[in-house]
Amino acid sequence: MTGTFSISASFPAAIETAGLGKWIDDRPILRDVHLTIGRGEYVGLLGGNGAGKTTLLRILSTLIPPGSGRLSVAGCELPRMASKARAHVGLVTHQSMLYRDLTARENLEFFAKLHGVRHASQRVEEILQRVGMSARADDLVKTFSRGMTQRISIARAIVHEPDVLLADEPFAGLDESAAAAVEELLAELNAAGRTILLVNHDVEQTLRLVRRVVVLRVGRDRGIASMT
Q1: Residues 113, 79: contact at Cβ < 8 Å?
Q2: Fewest beta carbons less than 10 Å away: which of 27, 74, 121, 212?
């Protein structure tokens, strides 16, 4: 797989939060979360069910606003600079966020244009090659296996060349071969300079892939403990 990526040198940290909190219906989901992730890191986010891992990624991806505290992603203060931050952030989940009745190419061209990518068609061709899906580019997404769909989902998330990739359970439902292909792709993206924050229920797999782990604690403080 080949591809060219460029990383801005101006960001002091890829992700920073201080005292971050989130409540839903008066129930604390996150409380007093302090987190710093440097540019180019590959970090695993662990925690028990209900710890707020997915909520944290949704906040960092600008899908939902924080309840309290301060945070920035790729140097963009959130939520004030959410529209600017979206140009620097990609989100991968076990839900593909793709249109099943469109082809892989049509999906990627749609998202490239949505992000204002210059020379969108050329960029789509590059990214299809990058994820190993050029041969299936004109097939409908609904005809793909789970592994193929996830590769196009990753392509969707990086078509605008984001600096930060948030991966929420990207291996869910994948067989061993498909999971290995996604592992390889994420490793290549990180080697190219992308910052990756990975949520994954498989602790053993996470420890094998990432360079550092942070643990989102369940309980009263719902904060983060860091381990290297």
Answers
A1: no
A2: 27
For residues 51 and 55, give the distance between their C-alpha atoms in angstroms, rounded to a whole number.
Answer: 9
- E runs forming strands in the chain: 15-24, 27-37, 42-46, 68-73, 76-78, 89-93, 164-168, 195-199, 212-216, 224-227
Q: DSSP letter at 187?
A: H
Distance between CA atoms of residues 135 and 152, nearest Å: 12
Tell me which CATH code domain 15-227 carries.
Answer: 3.40.50.300
CB 92 within 8 A of CB 153: yes
Show me where the domains of the chain are located.
15-227
From the list 52, 42, 104, the residue with the least C-alpha distance to 217 is 52
**What three-state secondary structure class fits 30?**
strand
pLDDT tens for residues 132-164? Answer: 999 999 999 999 999 999 999 999 999 999 999
| Residue among 63, 36, 33, 66 nearest 47 (CA) | 33
| 7 vs 109: CA distance, rounded Å | 22
